[in-house]
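Comment thread on ticket #2218

A.B. wrote:
> Attaching the input chain for the structure job we discussed in standup.
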Amino acid sequence: MEQKDIWDAETARNYDTPGTGMFAPEVLDPTVDRLARLAGEGAALEFAIGTGRVAVPLAARGVPVTGIELSGPMVEQLRTKADDTTIPVVIGDMATTTAPGEYTLVYLVFNTISNLLEQDQQVACFRNAARHLAPGGRFVVELWVPELRKLPPGRTATVWQSTPGYIGLDTYDVLRQHVVSHHFHFDGTRKAQLFRSPHRYIWPAELDLMAQLAGFELESRHADWAGSPFTAESPSHVSVYRLPGAV
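C.D. wrote:
> Ran it. Output below, let me know if you need it in another format.
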């Protein structure tokens, strides 16, 4: 299934969970705080802007935000929160589509770079970020760390969350660096609702090489948006890459 088919009207309608999950204040507020500091006095471009989970509060902080988004239905959901003057959006993929203007910050949140399923597409995404940035501009990537250490011999899946009414598991194809995330939602019946999304996972060192190929250097890496130290046990990271020069 192609990404544009996954992020359809039904997914867009059900994507937002105000006040909970990735929309919870303890998750969202540190994200917006950090991005606002990194943008400084300049403008920000969000790759895969989706329904505006981050862009809307970031724009409310006074940062001019533009987006690139592949899914028309996701943008329609965004339009219920902000018009195209407040947050302009260009429809297209984040590896090749360009937006007008020059930016001090380009950012990708919540593992979205892994939606590009080939390594050359992910490298192209870094190059696309670089072409939008002013000298000294930053590209921020939030990404999970593959859980291959949890796979015993002969097993291809990990359960990464199990709560009442929900099970999340990933199935791995280690030869292709592909993983499919399976989200099972249960109610009081015998039936479950399933949502699946394919990804290409990226090790932090591989991500750094992609950045280098696009002219970036790693400025910082933390375990979260609040700046916690990144360690061998961290399940995800926020990596900030910077172009040479001064903004």
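A.B. wrote:
> Thanks. Noting for the ticket: The two ends are 40 Å apart (CA to CA).
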